[in-house]
Design goal:
seven-stranded mixed β-sheet; globular; single chain; 25% strand; 7 helices; Metallo-beta-lactamase, Chain A; binds zinc ion
Length: 286
């Protein structure tokens, strides 16, 4: 399984010299399974460049929720306009409606010049099922996160690896039973991508906004026993140094043996090669 970050920012795109290292595009992550199955998580502004790179492609878009930073790139997703492409879209149910309504609403006149019916490669919209479901060789599990409206976290198990995507989540205010379900979703992940938007002083004024600090992200990673935590959903007001300071704080709090990384636009993580590196380490030590 390969993961590529196309957008790692939260709330609103923030291009410019101060965000050049980790990127300014909003949430979008590409997952490619060893069997070729293509899964895209979220359609923030990062999906524009992904669509250009893919050209004609068959895949599935999984949306976590309908906040703008997770859908705003969708009208610019070229791959869904191209003959020969085929895209299925799944998202949570909100107020009795699914992804078809919320994606097309942002494309109604006068907000956008094209309508969603012009995206001829869209093969269907579905509400994410409650139980586990399959895409290619992957088993996908979801649970509801601690975030305004209905927001889902995704666990993708395939190719002997586990990738967990928790883009927007406020750990401190999650009720006990919800936190238990979130920990279950993340349990023993090879890599957990988790919201890490605020420093502690910033969080003091933002309780209930739906986002976490390094302390909260590390709590999930530690209690779920994950191998690597990639901090994600960087605040649009943070420059590269501030993003690094939050990761450093997470490193200070993490258990020994847990890796902390920063989700960076353009980075590719190959989980099968991580396993090979670990196997080589074990052989070298043994
Ligand atoms: Zn968000
Ligand atoms: Zn959100």
């Amino acid at each position: 399984m390969k993961i590529r970050f196309w957008g790692t920012r939260g709330s609103i795109p923030s291009p410019g010299p101060s965000t050049i290292r980790y990127g300014g595009n909003t949430s979008c992550v590409e997952v490619t399974l060893d069997d070729g199955t293509l899964i895209v998580l979220d359609a923030g502004s990062g999906i524009r460049a992904l669509g250009k790179s893919l050209g004609a492609a068959h895949g599935t878009l999984l949306l976590t929720h309908y906040h703008w930073d997770h859908i705003q790139g969708f009208p610019f997703f070229d791959s869904a306009y191209i003959p020969g492409s085929k895209w299925r879209v799944l998202g949570p149910e909100f107020n009795g409606e699914g992804p078809g309504k919320y994606l097309s609403d942002q494309m109604t006149s006068p907000y956008f010049p094209a309508t969603m019916s012009q995206m001829s490669a869209l093969s269907g919209f579905e509400v994410v099922p409650h139980g586990p479901f399959h895409l290619g060789s992957a088993t996908i599990t979801t649970t509801r996160l601690s975030h305004p409206s209905v927001t889902l976290g995704y666990r993708i198990e395939a190719d002997d690896s586990v990738f967990v995507y928790i883009s927007d989540n406020e750990v401190d205010i999650a009720p006990h039973d919800q936190l238990a379900r979130i920990l279950d979703l993340a349990s023993d992940a090879d890599i957990l991508v988790h919201d890490c938007q605020y420093s502690e002083p910033e969080y003091a004024g933002k309780h209930g906004w739906g986002h976490s600090t390094p302390r909260q992200a590390v709590r999930v990673a530690r209690e779920a026993g994950v191998r690597e935590l990639a901090v994600f959903h960087h605040d649009p007001t943070h420059n590269d140094e501030q993003v690094e300071a939050l990761a450093e704080e997470a490193r200070r709090l993490a258990l020994r043996g847990m890796d902390i990384s920063i989700a960076r636009e353009g980075d590719v993580i190959d989980l099968s090669s991580i396993d090979e590196v670990i196997a080589a380490d074990i052989r070298a030590e043994g």
